[in-house]
Amino acid sequence: MLVITRFRVPAAEAEGFRADVLLALDLLGQRPGFEDGHVGRNVDDPDLWVLQTRWESVGTYRRALSSTEIKMRVHPLLYRALDEPSAYEVLEPGTDLNVAEPRSLR
Hints:
- The protein has about 110 residues and is an alpha+beta fold.
- The protein is built from three helices and four strands.
- A four-stranded antiparallel beta sheet has the order 2-3-1-4.
- A hairpin with a 6-residue loop joins strand 2 (about 35-40) and strand 3 (about 50-55).
- It is globular.
- The model has no long low-confidence stretch (mean pLDDT about 90).
């Protein structure tokens, strides 16, 4: 599972944001199921940043986000996130695509 979260950060706040997002990446990296991650800044629009993480599964990603430490230290950063879908399935040769279907509660 691949998560791409983009942020809009004014230049005057870039250094503080950089420290915060790198801390977020470090904390996420300590959660079970985390595979790797990167922080980047757009070369053409330096106010646009990205936090990219890769997870073993959607379940490990969701459990990581629900941990107390992540809620306390990473969630406050998310107010800067662009309001757009961020979770993607990783497509590899021979894998099936996820099927968007309602789930049974039984």
